[in-house]
UniProtKB/TrEMBL annotation, chains A, B:
Name used for this protein in its record: GntR family transcriptional regulator / MocR family aminotransferase
Pfam families assigned: Aminotran_1_2 (PF00155), GntR (PF00392)
Lineage top rank: taxon: Bacteria
Keywords: Aminotransferase, DNA-binding, Pyridoxal phosphate, Transcription, Transcription regulation, Transferase
Entry's family note: In the C-terminal section; belongs to the class-I pyridoxal-phosphate-dependent aminotransferase family.
Keyword hit for Transcription regulation: yes
InterPro entries: Aminotransferase_I/II_large, HTH_trans_reg/aminotransferase, PyrdxlP-dep_Trfase, PyrdxlP-dep_Trfase_major, Tscrpt_reg_HTH_GntR, WH-like_DNA-bd_sf, WH_DNA-bd_sf
PANTHER family tied to this protein: HTH-TYPE TRANSCRIPTIONAL REGULATORY PROTEIN GABR
Organism encoding this protein: Pontivivens marinum
Gene3D superfamilies for this protein: Type I PLP-dependent aspartate aminotransferase-like (Major domain), Winged helix-like DNA-binding domain superfamily/Winged helix DNA-binding domain
Length: 498, 498
């Protein structure tokens, strides 16, 4: 008999049930259950079946019934026995090529187009291949660079948060409370760097910035309210606004970001990225911020400030957040650790008036209770032990070098930058010649190992320019940048124009 | 000079900003910023201030300006110097008693009662003290018992999921995909134990069962739809249903759970807990399940089955889930790891037709992207290495012993059980004499070190009996049960009747 890899776990008798509708004998039903399990790929070659004693006890039949069923299954080569060690799925058993491939999906009894009262699909998102790491020049945005991340210290912090005493407190559910160590760090270290002073009651920890945007929109918007957003703006914002059925107005940005004069007076909530406009990366000057705050007070609208990427200010210090100029609680501030640590972490935070944050906690609780305690505590340690600041410095130096290589190559190959953050950031906003279809360009480049982000998803559906794209340098190594840019230049030359 | 505890981190110069509205000189402004930081509790005794060189560079002022400000602050005893090692917050500095207590909260410029378009608060939840572990007899529900949990192996699995290669894949964001190892375990081991066969496309991982309920309600319900729920039922369900503005109908359960005949024909979605009714713990018999499925087909409604606690079937094997009888994709099944592992984990899953699960992924993505990769992978290892099954067996044995002690003590002291799961579970549903106010009873008992859960939150607002309560044995040790039950009996004797 040939050698077989031992299966990690046996097949539990608890996975066997008689079907009350079945017509066959008990023995036949047992045979069918085993054969179906094997044919569907659920039971795998070498896996151990339940003993006849256990299966008989579980199903409430006599042991001989199970033994007879197993004997028939052996005769049909579905299973074999290794003497006293029991019954196993045979390598010679008939097999389906794919997991559960033979299972006919259910669902034909329900008219899902009617059954689903609300739809959340069909919001365009950038098409990011899961295997982006295997590409030669992945100019993709928002992913962690494993060559820069401090994996060792992250692991140490996670370990510390896994200690017995810590575990006891983190295992408990906490509908309302966030990790006090994390909140304290945010209040004492993160926010003051943005010029913001906030009490713990004014801070909520969220499942990333996306979750913060979702919560803010759900609380502040209804179908009788108007949300104003920048054009172009973060595609994730549309995923958040559409389900509220609010009226959505887009205001074109200029070289200084959102022009306050262009904000319609009917605005109830303005979503803006003043420190580092998404996706163009431009920074709103102080005078314009003051004008914006004055407009908000005059027309009595709220502002949701998404302050993503302020941590990546390696060229010069980031300007203070809009929230730092907020003296009547009008600004709701959103920060994130997903960009500066890693996106799979799913941790961000939101700062606002106590009344608003109290409501946000209620909504978060109804939606998901709270972000997992272990992730919060691990992050709290990584931050408070200073590893985070060290990471940001290391990241800043690397991004600075990459950016220099990028801009040099871009100049050399004659590409056009449409926006570049004056204080740093992790990407450049690019403009291809008018009429270029950057969706087609991205598709073309992918075949050559280069990933770029077409810009269409950031624009209003109606007036969507096709010739913008984003080039991030957060996940591409310095040495691969020039060839990648050269490849883009070549592809642009060959691109058909509309 | 007295000894001081070294502060973990210095105060970063990046937390200093000039206020554009300020009238004072630059030196005065620096003094104010430091004094305000100390008075507000943000800067703490012994913490190191930025060097005059760094602060001057950051603020764009001459170094002498900073030095003069620091000298003044020393004269006022806010800070002191330790020669070349720099400036520190003085222990003699004026101090506020509490963190940021002196900070006047913002928010008076916004009328929040108008600004918030939707409210999520005021849903009653059980009042669970955060320090429940310190009580003598905490008969509280749904918390992990640290004397039973396999902390060592959980830690090992978490460590394995923190390895470099794992980390790279878990750090990436994954809008749509769940951890394939976790999904495979659920498909091959968890669901078959409930009689359910599902493909990965029919499974979504959620932030606990609450998140699954939220997603299902958001997709299936609108203000033109009707949700039918059991009375009494899980309080978290109301948090999920109210925001959809659907019509909500409650159907009284009997000793066999929900009676299918009583389900109104206008029902669009039924929320039910057939295997272990929440909170009464009764199990719906097979014949009634068949009748329920027939009703659902006839009146064309969907069923959301919350299969919480099936893992705790230590008395006899759990009956197969309702979903196992679903041949036209009408049942949406919800499972959770929060009860059997620990609630702070925040991991559950939902099984349904591929069309529905696809929409659920879209909504989850808009709300929060995905559950953190590390938590998914750690759980996947803990499950697939067999630690989970071992934990369930250990837990089952302990719960069995505790339940025996509970029922003996309940009989001895003449308390009345209103519902007890025939296959096990972690709690008993209790009925005090008519007219008893179990809210007052719980309050009274708390002062004597005993925690019980008043039952009011599980009932309809209108017809709320006041005399039910829940006693869980999942977080109380065997030896403390008799005295706890005795104390409840005493309190009940003394309780005033309505």
């Amino acid at each position: 008999m040939q050698e077989r890899r031992a299966a990690t776990m046996g097949i539990s008798e608890e996975t066997f049930f008689f079907d009350p509708r079945s017509q066959g004998t008990l023995q036949q039903q047992i045979q069918e259950m085993v054969a179906q399990g094997i044919l569907s790929g659920r039971f795998r070659v070498g896996e151990k079946l339940p003993s006849s004693r256990k299966l008989a006890a579980h199903l409430g039949v006599s042991r001989i019934t199970v033994t007879l069923a197993y004997t028939e299954l052996m005769a049909d080569a579905y299973i074999f026995t290794r003497g006293k060690s029991g019954y196993f799925v045979s390598p010679d058993a008939p097999q389906s090529p794919k997991f559960l491939a033979s299972h006919v999906p259910a669902g034909n009894g329900v008219d899902w187009s009617r059954a689903m009262g609300r739809r959340f699909s069909n919001v365009p998102r950038p098409d990011k291949p899961a295997d982006w790491r295997t590409y030669h020049a992945p100019f993709i945005y928002g992913q962690a660079d494993n060559t820069l991340f401090d994996h060792q210290n992250w692991r140490n912090c996670a370990l510390r948060a896994l200690g017995q005493r810590e575990f006891d407190s983190l295992a408990t559910d906490a509908f309302q409370q966030d990790d006090p160590i994390l909140v304290e760090y945010i209040a004492r270290h993160s926010l003051p760097r943005r010029g913001i002073i906030a009490r713990p009651e004014e801070i909520i920890v969220t499942l990333g910035a996306q979750n913060a945007l979702w919560i803010a929109a759900q609380i502040l918007l209804t179908q009788r309210r108007t949300a104003t957003v920048e054009n172009p703006s973060y595609y994730g914002l549309r995923e958040v606004l559409t389900p509220t059925r609010c009226k959505e107005i887009r205001v074109d940005i200029d070289a200084d970001g959102l022009p306050p004069d262009a904000i319609p007076t009917e605005t109830d909530v303005l979503f803006t990225t003043p420190s580092h406009q998404c996706p163009s990366t431009v920074t709103m000057p102080l005078a314009r911020r003051q004008a914006l705050m004055a407009r908000a007070a005059k027309d009595d609208f709220l502002i949701v400030e998404d302050d993503y990427e302020y941590e990546m200010s390696f060229l010069k210090a980031a300007t203070p957040a809009l929230k730092s100029m907020d003296h009547d609680g009008r600004v709701i501030y959103i920060g994130s650790f997903s960009k500066s640590l890693f996106p799979g972490l799913r941790l961000g935070y939101m700062v606002g008036s106590e009344e608003f944050i109290r409501e946000a906690r209620e909504l978060r609780s109804a939606m998901l209770r709270h972000p997992p305690g272990h992730m919060q505590r691990t992050t709290a340690y990584f931050l408070s032990l200073g590893h985070y600041d060290a990471l940001l410095r290391r990241q800043g130096r690397a991004f600075h070098r990459r950016r220099n290589v990028m801009t040099a190559a871009i100049e050399e190959y004659g590409l056009r930058i449409a926006g570049s953050g004056s204080f740093g950031g992790s990407s450049l906003w690019m403009r291809a010649p008018d009429g270029t279809d950057t969706d087609a360009l991205a598709h073309d480049l992918r075949a050559h190992g280069v990933l770029i982000e077409p810009g269409g998803v950031y624009f209003d559906d109606g007036l969507k320019p096709t010739n913008y794209y984003r080039l991030a340098y957060s996940s591409v190594s310095e040495d691969r940048i020039p060839a990648g840019i050269a490849r883009i230049a070549t592809a642009l030359k060959n691109a058909p124009k509309a």
